[in-house]
Specification:
alpha+beta; about 200 residues; elongated; 6 helices; 8 strands
């Protein structure tokens, strides 16, 4: 299903993601886009560097939509993970998993990676961004209350920096929009390579 965003008469890109956060970021910069969610599965099980994992997943998502549409559209795929001590934290599978993630990240520094891929025809442009984040030390009660809001359940690392969890963020070094789920500066640079001006 194509969700047409009311951003103008033309479409610059097709976003291969149903993520509201990524849509909000594109809307924030006035980008014209349509949404066609990708059915590609994220695979974080491979023994690869985190930047390669997110790039591979982003390309797979974009490629699945490109194959489905079989047109000449520019497709944007993205994938975000949290990494600490060589462990990959994707989206929690349940409440217990969310609590495990937040308990581990509590009081520690972790790195957020987002891979982005643009596909047009047979050409693929790809890149990634990484940002370091430190969470404050959280009590078990704070973690339980946060999980009860439902916010962590579809977020890599089980938290949303742009949501309630902003009160837990002690320090961030690097790109903020990367942690939200779409590094806009890297995206703009990648779009220029593809002949697209986002602004």
């Amino acid at each position: 299903m194509i969700n047409f965003c009311k951003m103008g008469d033309s479409t610059l890109i097709i976003l291969a993601s149903s993520s509201p956060r990524r849509q909000e970021l594109l809307n924030q910069i006035g980008c014209k886009f349509n949404v066609v969610p990708s059915a590609a599965e994220e695979d974080n099980s491979k023994a690869l560097p985190p930047e390669q994992l997110v790039i591979n997943n982003a390309v797979a998502k974009a490629q699945e939509v490109a194959d489905k549409l079989a047109g000449n559209d520019v497709i944007l795929g993205a994938d975000t993970i949290v990494v600490m001590n060589d462990e990959v934290y994707g989206k929690p599978v349940n409440v217990a998993d969310a609590k495990r993630m937040l308990s581990s990240l509590s009081g520690n520094v972790h790195t957020v990676y987002t891979g982005i891929a643009l596909i047009k025809g047979n050409t693929v442009w790809r890149d990634f961004e990484k940002t370091t984040v430190k969470l404050s030390k959280l009590t078990s009660e704070e973690i339980d209350k946060y999980i009860a809001t439902g916010e962590p359940m579809d977020k890599a690392g089980a938290y949303a920096i742009q949501g309630i969890a902003t009160v837990f963020i002690e320090e961030i070094q690097g790109c903020y929009t990367n942690v939200v789920g779409l590094p806009l500066n890297k995206l703009a640079n990648l779009c220029k390579k593809a002949g697209i001006n986002l602004l």
